[in-house]
Amino acid sequence: MNLLLTGFEPFDNSDRNPSLEIARELDRRRIGDVQVTSRILPVSMQRIAVALDTVLDETRPDLVLSLGLAGHESMIRIERFGMNLADFPIADNDGARSVDQALIPEGTVGVATTIPNRAIYDALLAAGIPARLSNTAGLYLCNACIYLTHAALTRRGSPARFGFLHLPYLPEQVAALLAGPRAGRLPEQVASMSLETMTRAVEIAIGSCAQSNVASARAASRS
Ligand code: PCA
């Protein structure tokens, strides 16, 4: 089973993004029956759709798991939906800020992610990693990634399941924020999670995705 794991480049004046670091760490790793291939996506409205098309054509995955940073999040956040809307709270890495813009003008309002979100949630909690199911991925590039991945898979007639995990800041990112010029504008409490714990969470999520893919393949071959 081939799994495409995507992370995002750093954005918003940070020089790190845990999603990029985890994707790189797990690239070419075999996790059970799953062969992981990682790619990094641009934090760019103009470039993300082409980047997704390219990585899907290069890797032809059976499963797609995408990762992104959700600063100020305290847990692993399992995204259930992507909306057909870009309404950016901040500019992207090209300096562009989409406002009330449909990702695909004639597209449906929203799409649901298809990896086993509940099983991932249960597995993370069982491993002692805090997680939550989320009904909105925001309206920035991570949401665009979900919506556009669905569209790109559909265009290819690919049955690959896809999903998205949002990650908290790394502890070092919070320390850098506290040491930086924006410290005074931070909330009193800002959560973070170690790279090690988040990497473990992604490995667990990959294991859950693989299990459910195998189970549905078995069910299909019985019917
Ligand atoms: N997080 C942003 C985009 C890139 C990333 O890692 C988001 O939550 O939309």
Write the layout of secondary structure elements.
Layout: E1 2-8, H1 18-26, E2 30-31, E3 34-41, H2 45-59, E4 63-69, E5 76-79, E6 81-83, E7 110-112, H3 117-126, E8 131-134, H4 141-155, E9 161-167, H5 171-179, H6 195-222
Parallel strand pairs: 1-3, 1-4, 4-9, 5-8
Antiparallel strand pairs: 2-3, 5-9, 6-7
Helix pairs in contact: 1-6, 2-4, 3-6
The chain binds pyroglutamic acid.
Care to describe what's here?
It contains 6 helices and 9 strands, in the order βαββαββββαβαβαα. By secondary structure, the protein is α/β, with parallel strands linked by helices. The chain has a single domain, classed as Peptidase C15, pyroglutamyl peptidase I-like (Aminopeptidase), CATH 3.40.630.20. Strand 2 and strand 3 form a beta hairpin. Helix 1 packs across helix 6, helix 2 crosses helix 4 and helix 3 packs across helix 6. The longest helix has 28 residues. The chain is globular and about 60 Å long. The model has no long low-confidence stretch (mean pLDDT 97). The structure holds pyroglutamic acid. Pyroglutamic acid (PCA) binds next to strand 4 and helix 4.
